[in-house]
Design goal:
By secondary structure, this protein is an alpha+beta fold. It has two domains: 14-31 and 50-145, 3-Layer(aba) Sandwich (Beta-lactamase), CATH 3.40.710.10; 158-225, no CATH class. Helices cover 20% and strands 13% of the residues. Strand 6 (101-107) and strand 7 (112-118) form a beta hairpin. Mean pLDDT is 80; it is low at 172-182 and 187-195.
């Protein structure tokens, strides 16, 4: 956890922290940050477009579970009281030894923002914690840039239902029905037997045809009324 909070030998920049937390939001896929997405000329012709390569560093379920845990930081944890109103958000506070560095990094489905407070030449700053100045700055900034945006829930993990043996070998024979993983790209196909979708989130107001298998149970669906910008 020390590394996650910025406690590295030579430190870590706010940009690197934002990149790391953005990776958690992006289902475990990491990509380099950029200030320029696209450049067009006066006729609308694209003369430059960023080519951001996605590199998988976490499993999707692990990333979504982490987001679920980080949401509790703002509701019941060290950043309790730091809220964006109805907009779901996740984040983490961080304070290094002797109160030399204060961090708060958090994200929504729209933006990821990293805040660091401290001296360029490290020295103690009395009263500095991740939940003090950094969290307050994060809240003020994120509140402004989310004005007019529709609250958007985070995607939930698709849970595997079954025993540990069935997860390791879904095709193994058992007296109990085996369950496999839900393939979001090919929902009509079964992987390792039947499956259950516990929770799933779709953008927009309509559910794509065939997205939820007929034998799915305990389905929780969240919709938004406008497209969600992921970066």
């Amino acid at each position: 956890m020390a590394a996650c909070l910025g406690g590295l030998t030579v430190g870590v920049s706010p940009l690197e922290m934002a990149k790391g937390y953005g990776t958690i939001y992006n289902d475990g896929y990491m990509r380099d940050a950029t200030c320029i997405q696209k450049i067009t000329d006066s006729t609308g012709k694209v003369i430059f477009e960023a080519n951001q390569e996605n590199v998988k560093v976490y499993e999707e379920k692990a990333a979504r579970n982490m987001t679920d845990m980080l949401q509790s930081v703002l509701t019941d944890g060290t950043a309790k009281g730091i809220s964006l109103g109805e907009m779901p958000a996740a984040g983490k506070t961080g304070t290094t030894n002797d109160n030399r560095d204060g961090w708060f990094v958090g994200y929504t489905k729209y933006y990821t923002t990293s805040i660091w407070v401290g001296y360029d030449q490290p020295k103690s700053l009395p009263g500095l914690t991740g939940s003090s100045y950094p969290a307050a700055i994060w809240q003020d900034f994120m509140t402004i840039i989310h004005e007019g945006k529709v609250p958007a829930e985070f995607k939930k993990p698709v849970e595997f239902i079954g025993t540990e043996e069935q997860q390791e070998d879904p095709d193994s024979e058992s007296d109990e029905e085996s369950f496999g993983q839900f393939d979001q790209e090919h929902p009509e196909e079964k992987v390792g037997g039947s499956y259950q979708v516990v929770t799933q989130t779709f953008d927009g107001t309509e559910i794509p045809e065939g997205a939820i298998p007929d034998n799915a149970t305990d389905v929780q669906i969240t919709t938004t009324v406008e497209p969600v910008v992921e970066e």
